[in-house]
């Protein structure tokens, strides 16, 4: 992919940064938006703005239909059984926090919660806090020495009976794709009541995701990492669980009846969606899913895989330390690394002066960086509008930084 026909759909990619063409390689933080998503949001405010599920007037009915249309599109995109399994939230972090609060009544002193060192803080801290609050045991599966997922150790732990298992689908640091399906099978064979929560923030919109086939219980992701607006996320909740959990947020839109002495809840998904949602953002997510579908998720997955392999090959020749597994086939869209004797922030600064946007720091994955005994790393992440030329620019930029720092 030297040329990319999709690039022209993204107005921001025509920007110059520091007198250079923008090379945007910070997609794991957030993706850019195609014009159709920007238009969908502005069109909503221009022509359809009203609150949803409340008014018996034309605009409110239009807004409601637009929101529900996105729910149907998202459900089909992740292979949900019914659209009602899709709960709109403010982002993956919100989704994971809601999941942790929903399952709280099922967690007791000495229940076992398992997560991993590979997690983003959003899928780590809520479980750490839940364990602290309930007296549950938190088991954190260590990564292997290179920073890759330890299947052997995970299997051993899952075979000891686990109550809650929170796992990422794709690492936001190493890009490693975790075989969640096989792990769910092991966890549920040992304890059919084990609740599995998957953080799909780096997976949805990057690879085909089928929540039924994964057989997890909750699946969380953010719209803004798949071309949609910020401030919108999804928590997919398996249908069988709707009646087993009480809502954790209360207010308008989620009740059936309210009296002075008690309240009862509406049906799912509304019982889990208190208050006015980010309607325009949700409409934008619908447009993003439409755009992804127009290309095809298999094609997108193939292109991101190709770029990732190309980046690993080119960066591998620079004498830098790449984090994660040797097996490049297990990686999707994200490559983190350190250039010896150049701090990641300094590297990011030099690259920025060349118009190249990468991320530096711990990427909200401090446990992983601590395990690897590094304070920070540089991260390049790719999406469907990137090209091999972008990666060549990154390589040139790193060479230039090495020259500047004389390393
Ligand atoms: C793997 C992973 N999980 C969760 C999140 C949190 O997403 P958000 O900040 O959109 O809530 C991120 C964001 O970087 C992520 O990469």
UniProtKB/TrEMBL annotation:
<comment type="similarity">
    <text>Belongs to the class-V pyridoxal-phosphate-dependent aminotransferase family. Csd subfamily.</text>
</comment>
<keyword id="KW-0808">Transferase</keyword>
<protein>
    <recommendedName>
        <fullName>Cysteine desulfurase</fullName>
        <ecNumber>2.8.1.7</ecNumber>
    </recommendedName>
</protein>
<dbReference type="InterPro" id="IPR016454">
    <property type="entry name" value="Cysteine_dSase"/>
</dbReference>
<dbReference type="GO" id="GO:0006534">
    <property type="term" value="P:cysteine metabolic process"/>
</dbReference>
<keyword id="KW-0663">Pyridoxal phosphate</keyword>
<comment type="function">
    <text>Catalyzes the removal of elemental sulfur and selenium atoms from L-cysteine, L-cystine, L-selenocysteine, and L-selenocystine to produce L-alanine.</text>
</comment>
<dbReference type="Pfam" id="PF00266">
    <property type="entry name" value="Aminotran_5"/>
</dbReference>
<dbReference type="GO" id="GO:0030170">
    <property type="term" value="F:pyridoxal phosphate binding"/>
</dbReference>
<dbReference type="InterPro" id="IPR000192">
    <property type="entry name" value="Aminotrans_V_dom"/>
</dbReference>
<dbReference type="InterPro" id="IPR015421">
    <property type="entry name" value="PyrdxlP-dep_Trfase_major"/>
</dbReference>
<dbReference type="InterPro" id="IPR015424">
    <property type="entry name" value="PyrdxlP-dep_Trfase"/>
</dbReference>
<dbReference type="InterPro" id="IPR015422">
    <property type="entry name" value="PyrdxlP-dep_Trfase_small"/>
</dbReference>
<dbReference type="GO" id="GO:0031071">
    <property type="term" value="F:cysteine desulfurase activity"/>
</dbReference>
<dbReference type="InterPro" id="IPR020578">
    <property type="entry name" value="Aminotrans_V_PyrdxlP_BS"/>
</dbReference>
<dbReference type="InterPro" id="IPR010970">
    <property type="entry name" value="Cys_dSase_SufS"/>
</dbReference>
<feature type="domain" description="Aminotransferase class V">
    <location>
        <begin position="23"/>
        <end position="394"/>
    </location>
</feature>
């Amino acid at each position: 992919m030297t040329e990319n026909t999709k690039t022209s759909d993204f107005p921001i990619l025509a920007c110059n940064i520091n007198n250079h063409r923008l090379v945007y390689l910070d997609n794991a933080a957030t993706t850019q938006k195609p014009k159709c998503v920007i238009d969908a949001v502005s069109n909503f405010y221009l022509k359809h703005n009203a609150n949803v599920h409340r008014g018996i007037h034309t605009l409110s009915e239009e807004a409601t239909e637009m929101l529900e249309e996105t729910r149907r599109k998202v459900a089909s995109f992740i292979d949900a059984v019914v659209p009602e399994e899709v709960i709109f939230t403010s982002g993956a972090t919100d989704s994971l926090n809601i999941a942790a609060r929903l399952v709280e009544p099922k967690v007791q002193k000495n229940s076992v919660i398992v997560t991993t060192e590979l997690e983003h803080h959003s899928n780590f801290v809520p479980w750490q806090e839940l364990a602290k609050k309930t007296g549950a045991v938190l088991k954190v599966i260590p990564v292997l020495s290179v920073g890759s997922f330890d299947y052997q150790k995970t299997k051993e732990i899952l075979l000891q009976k686990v109550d809650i298992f929170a796992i990422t689908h794709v690492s936001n640091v190493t890009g490693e794709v975790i075989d969640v399906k096989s792990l769910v099978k092991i966890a549920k064979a040992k304890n059919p009541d084990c609740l599995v929560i998957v953080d799909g923030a780096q997976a949805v919109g990057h690879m085909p995701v089928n929540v039924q086939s994964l057989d997890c219980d909750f699946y969380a992701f953010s719209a803004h990492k798949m071309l949609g607006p910020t401030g919108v996320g999804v928590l997919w909740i398996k249908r069988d669980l709707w009646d087993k959990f009480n809502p954790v947020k209360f207010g308008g839109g989620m009740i059936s009846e309210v009296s002075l002495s008690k309240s009862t809840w509406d049906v799912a998904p509304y019982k889990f969606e208190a208050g006015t949602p980010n309607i325009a953002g949700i409409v934008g997510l619908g447009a993003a899913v439409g755009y992804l579908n127009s290309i095809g998720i298999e094609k997108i997955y193939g292109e991101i895989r190709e770029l990732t392999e190309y980046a690993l090959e080119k960066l591998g020749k620079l004498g830098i330390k790449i984090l994660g597994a040797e097996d490049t086939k297990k990686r999707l869209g994200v490559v983190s690394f350190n250039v010896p004797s150049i701090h990641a922030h300094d590297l990011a600064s030099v690259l920025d002066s060349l118009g190249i946007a990468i991320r530096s720091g711990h990427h909200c994955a401090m446990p992983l960086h601590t395990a690897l005994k590094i304070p920070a790393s540089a991260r390049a992440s790719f999406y469907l509008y990137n090209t091999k030329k972008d990666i060549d620019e990154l390589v040139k930029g790193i060479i230039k930084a090495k020259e500047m720092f004389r390393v």
